[in-house]
Design a protein that fits this description.
Blueprint: E1 4-11, E2 21-28, E3 33-37, H1 44-52, E4 59-64, E5 67-68, E6 79-82, H2 94-104, H3 109-122, H4 138-150, E7 156-160, H5 168-185, E8 188-193, H6 196-202, E9 205-210, E10 213-218, H7 220-225, H8 230-235, E11 242-249, E12 252-255, E13 260-262, H9 265-269, E14 278-282, E15 287-288, H10 291-296, E16 302-311, E17 315-322, E18 325-332, E19 342-347, E20 353-356
Parallel strand pairs: 3-8, 3-9, 6-7, 7-8
Antiparallel strand pairs: 1-2, 1-4, 4-5, 9-10, 11-12, 11-14, 12-13, 14-20, 15-19, 16-17, 16-19, 17-18
Helix pairs in contact: 2-3, 2-4
The structure holds adenosine-5'-triphosphate (ATP) and magnesium ion (MG).
Adenosine-5'-triphosphate binds next to helix 1.
Amino acid sequence: MSYIQLKGLCKKYPNATKNSVTDFNLDIEEKEFIAFVGPSGCGKSTTLRMIAGFEEISGGELYIDGKKMNNVLPRDRGIAMVFQNYALYPHMTVEKNISYGLKNMKVPSDEIKRKTDWAIDILGLEEYRNRKPKNLSGGQRQRVALGRAIVKDSKVFLMDEPLSNLDAKLRVSMRNEISKLHRQLGSTTIYVTHDQVEAMTMADRIVIMKDGVVQQVGKPMELYDHPVNKFVAGFIGSPQMNFFDVTIEGNTVKFADGKQMPLSENIINQLGGKTSGLILGIRGEDIKLDAQNLEVYGEGKQSAVVENTEVMGNENNLYFTFGGAVAVARVSKYEISQVGDSIDFTFVPSKIHFFDKETEECLF
Ligand SMILES: Nc1ncnc2c1ncn2[C@@H]1O[C@H](COP(=O)(O)OP(=O)(O)OP(=O)(O)O)[C@@H](O)[C@H]1O
Ligand SMILES: [Mg+2]
């Protein structure tokens, strides 16, 4: 049996006209790192708070370690939570902030000392032990908030956007620290974020939500390579996947601006005879400009004029109008193109996705 089970969890807030979370099903294995990801308001925090016990469950069942938790008090669920808007006690030192919860729980003082020292050590806070929060950087405060959670000996950690207040560089280093901590503690972690990069880099599996409904659950690369619908395809990956309205004639894809691209019968057959109401999706890195790919996939060669570039250092994004949309190709830093340049490019056929325009489901 899985360690945490969500069975048809629903949440309808009193006075709300519709559910904030609908029929959420998920089995989480012990020691797994799960990320909930999705746009603002999709129900991530609500789900997490139902698991923690801070929000009543309107429907469905929650099990932790085989025990039904729906009506168990938060403190008896064996969970530690780092909140979206954590607040440290401003008048207490780092050490006191971390140990305060244990004191409240009447833990013997030698044990409080041992656990607090361990947390301070593992989080690299020794130097700041006697400082108050106002004299700490954002990242150091964040680590204190984590410290308060990890001393509680919980087998389950729930984290709600714990890095949202930090600058980009600090987020990357804290991301690594949290991953390391997760492995060291051997805990089961659910991590909420609206940042798909965080979800991709940290999680064993990602749950992607929209409007209170789970869209897809899978390993990061499963979601990236095999999105079930256009929403998932567009949410995971940056820059976003390119989408084009297309129709099929014979073995040829026709774009909205009249451009044509032949595809193999093999690919066309997978559409099961559907020829209109289609969206073609391709990621920027699967649009190729280099000589080798142009030779291999030359049959589908297209051209356009670069309208904008984003120089990222390690790679460049080239924007151009094609197929009735603005498309973006991700090319290596060695493929230098400027605004106004004409480019030839080709889509890697095996990386093309098709979506039903009406249902937005991925056809393959
Ligand atoms: N106490 C509440 N009463 C009524 N509606 C609420 C309450 N809390 C949240 N909601 C609504 O439930 C939905 C889900 O909210 P939730 O906070 O779970 O979203 P979220 O995915 O965590 O978003 P964010 O990324 O902005 O934190 C939203 O439409 C929100 O307005
Ligand atoms: Mg939230």
